[in-house]
Design the sequence.
């Protein structure tokens, strides 16, 4: 029942978005900014957005498969395929594709892949929240937002320290559960250098991605870069919600509008900017997926490359 309810809500959100566009904006007004957008500007934004996926591929390669002799090309293929499935499949079920693709292509254990994905997602959420707090301080001048950013900063290190302290307790679990937890634990950075590298790549990913999205929002409406950054950030934060529309339709726009309207942006104008940015994101996702599927899938032996270092902790 819960699954069907979430599916019904997702469909309802998408239908509601179409109704809101038709009622408040009109389709001519919605698509007008695209006619004013210079092709070179669109190409630049597309290059930066796809480049952020390239940085994700480097993060994946450095974290998982540099000891397995796999090149960046196939790491990028996995990242683009995972992103496509994550956007198109309902109820965040596309996340499951990450450990499946990692195991099929690179021989990474499912538990280790799940642990790594959990690390990536926690770093993603932490980085978005930290950048949003800093941007709110820059936009509003409220010192509390800067203090929140300062408090958020050490959380990855604290979480890593806590995981090391709690892991020995899992050995008291039944053998099968303890083995699964050990596999997941191997997907967590084994030392501070690895943690810092994942952290650095994550920051680079989000700085590039949000900069491209915020810049596009300034092209789609009369808005400064600071408020556009907050709008783009709020839209991406909705991706972690347990319920969202198909391909984020409805929830993404709601996040952008909720961030922009308190900052003095007209709700109808904010909705138009949000929909157009979402269309760009979906187009970039589909283009990346097509690029990924043009490359033959790589099937990797489960043994690491000769001389490869193991990730013992």
Sequence:
């Amino acid at each position: 029942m819960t699954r069907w309810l979430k599916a019904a809500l997702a469909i309802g959100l998408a239908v509601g978005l179409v109704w809101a566009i038709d009622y408040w904006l009109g389709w001519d007004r919605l698509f007008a900014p695209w006619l004013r957008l210079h092709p070179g500007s669109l190409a630049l934004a597309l290059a930066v957005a796809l480049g952020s996926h390239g940085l994700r591929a480097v993060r994946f390669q450095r974290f998982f498969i540099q000891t397995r002799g796999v090149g960046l090309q196939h790491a990028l293929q996995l990242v683009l395929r995972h992103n496509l499935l994550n956007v198109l499949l309902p109820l965040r079920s596309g996340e499951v594709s990450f450990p499946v693709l990692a195991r099929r292509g690179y021989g990474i254990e499912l538990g280790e892949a799940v642990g790594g994905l959990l690390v990536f997602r926690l770093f993603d959420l932490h980085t978005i929240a930290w950048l949003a707090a800093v941007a709110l301080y820059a936009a509003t001048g409220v010192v509390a937002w800067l203090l929140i950013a300062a408090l958020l900063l050490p959380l990855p290190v604290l979480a890593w320290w806590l995981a090391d302290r709690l892991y020995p307790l899992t050995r008291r679990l039944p053998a099968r559960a303890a083995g699964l937890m050990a596999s997941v634990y191997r997907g967590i950075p084994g030392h501070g250098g690895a943690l810092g590298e994942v952290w650095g790549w994550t920051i680079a990913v989000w700085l590039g991605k949000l900069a491209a999205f915020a810049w596009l929002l300034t092209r789609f409406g009369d808005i400064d870069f600071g408020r556009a950054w907050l709008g783009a950030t709020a839209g991406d934060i909705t991706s972690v919600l347990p319920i969202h529309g198909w391909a984020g339709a409805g929830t993404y726009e709601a996040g952008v509008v909720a961030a922009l309207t308190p900052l003095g942006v007209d709700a109808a104008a904010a909705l138009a900017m949000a929909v157009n940015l979402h269309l760009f994101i979906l187009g970039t996702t589909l283009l990346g997926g097509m690029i990924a599927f043009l490359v033959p899938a790589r099937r990797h032996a489960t043994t690491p490359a000769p001389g490869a270092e193991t990730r013992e902790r």
The two ends are 42 Å apart (CA to CA). The CA atoms of residues 19 and 75 lie 40 Å apart.
